[in-house]
Design goal:
The structure holds 2 protein chains of 2 kinds. Chain A is mainly β. Chain A contains 1 helix and 10 strands, in the order H-E-E-E-E-E-E-E-E-E-E. The radius of gyration of chain A is 32 Å and the shape is elongated. Chain A starts with a helix and ends with a strand. By secondary structure, chain B is mostly beta strands. Chain B contains 1 helix and 13 strands, in the order H-E-E-E-E-E-E-E-E-E-E-E-E-E. Chain B has a 5-stranded antiparallel β-sheet, with no helix packed on it. A 4-stranded antiparallel β-sheet of chain B has the order 3-12-7-6, with no helix packed on it. In chain B, strand 8 and strand 9 form a beta hairpin. Chain B is elongated. Chain B starts with a helix and ends with a strand. The chains are: A mainly beta, B mainly beta. Chains A and B meet through helix 1 and strand 1 of A and helix 1, strand 1, strand 2, strand 4 and strand 13 of B. Strand 1 of chain A pairs antiparallel with strand 13 of chain B.
């Protein structure tokens, strides 16, 4: 009789203890948007310049202004920043490049373009199709004794969401 | 007679010990109420969901024994999986989980979901656990939907 009582008690306790673990799961979800792509579409071209004569290419110059084409997530704001050379080089010779100007627009015709200062950067928003076009202009200042030659430099634009 | 009395007390003692466990032994249920939702994520831009975010934090509801210690332990993903098996890191901080004995998102006690944690159930046996996390897309993260699974195991001690 005693054994039966103890066994019964332990059986009840055991039943209660067996059901004391459980679990459930939830999901974590995210939707990654289109990565940014930047293309250097057109170089900033000064053409022929003459010693002692400054030459300016405006950012609004669709033929000679430098142009970057940006694609990314539609309608997303982005931040533009630039690395701008202070001089162009031809071997050991250098020529100052100054007074950078910029325009960004949602169309490659520059319609509705907004002027900005490249050294300060800009925060435009990509178009409804995820496009942005950016133009850069500047001025070169050849010295009166500027050595003849082909001068070049690199302008880098960085775009982040 | 004396022996019989001792045996009766022993049996009674065992039954008394068993009785509270039976009373506490209503089924322990854990329900995943809401997932952690990061929404639109931009490549290279981490996205944080706080456990206190009423719309995007994860939530589990637990019904179980009244009172007493309960251990909460998570199985957490290191990554979410996306298009063609692409992976996106997901991380959990030291206070990215919260326990609410009132089942209110506004009244939580934070804890580390990376470590098993012991909490005390309220007398009504109903609690909620909230979860936050951080998604860390790479700058070249492949676009598309990503998912991961967060599992909470509850053990009544």
């Amino acid at each position: 009789m005693r054994s039966i009582a103890i066994v019964a008690a332990l059986a009840i306790a055991g039943t209660a203890l067996q059901a004391q673990t459980n679990n459930a799961s939830i999901t974590a979800t995210a939707s990654v948007q289109t990565p940014i792509n930047v293309l250097g579409a057109q170089a900033l071209g000064f053409g022929n310049v003459f010693p002692g004569v400054n030459k300016t290419v405006a950012a609004t110059d669709l033929t000679n202004g430098g142009r970057f084409d940006v694609t990314g997530q539609a309608s997303s704001p982005v931040t533009l920043s630039f690395t701008l050379p202070a001089t162009l080089s031809s071997g050991a010779n250098t020529m100052p490049i100054v007074n950078y100007t910029g325009v960004h627009a949602l169309l490659n015709t520059q319609a509705g373009g907004i002027a900005f200062t490249p050294s300060a950067g800009a925060t435009p928003t990509l178009s409804g199709t995820g496009a942005l076009f950016v133009w850069v202009g500047a001025q070169v200042q050849p010295a009166t004794n500027q050595a003849a030659g082909v001068y070049s430099g690199s302008i880098t634009m960085t775009v982040v969401y | 007679m004396k022996t019989m009395k001792r045996e009766s007390l022993l049996v009674l003692g065992v039954l008394l010990l068993a009785a509270p466990l039976v009373a506490q032994g209503k089924p322990l249920t854990v329900t995943g109420v809401r997932g952690v939702t990061f929404g639109a994520v931009l490549p290279g831009v981490p996205r944080v969901v706080l456990r206190t975010d009423p719309a995007n934090s994860g939530q589990f509801d637990i019904r179980g024994p009244k009172g007493g210690p309960v251990m909460l332990s998570f199985v957490l993903p290191l990554n979410m999986t996306g298009p063609s098996g692409a992976l996106m890191p997901i991380s959990f901080g030291a206070s990215d989980a919260g326990f609410s004995s009132t089942q209110s998102i506004g009244s939580q006690v934070g804890f580390d979901p990376r470590q098993p944690t012991t909490v005390i159930f309220p007398n009504n046996g109903n609690v909620s656990v909230f979860v936050g996390a951080t998604a860390r897309p790479a700058t070249n993260q492949r676009a598309g939907p990503y998912t991961g699974t967060i599992t909470l195991t509850v053990t009544y001690l």
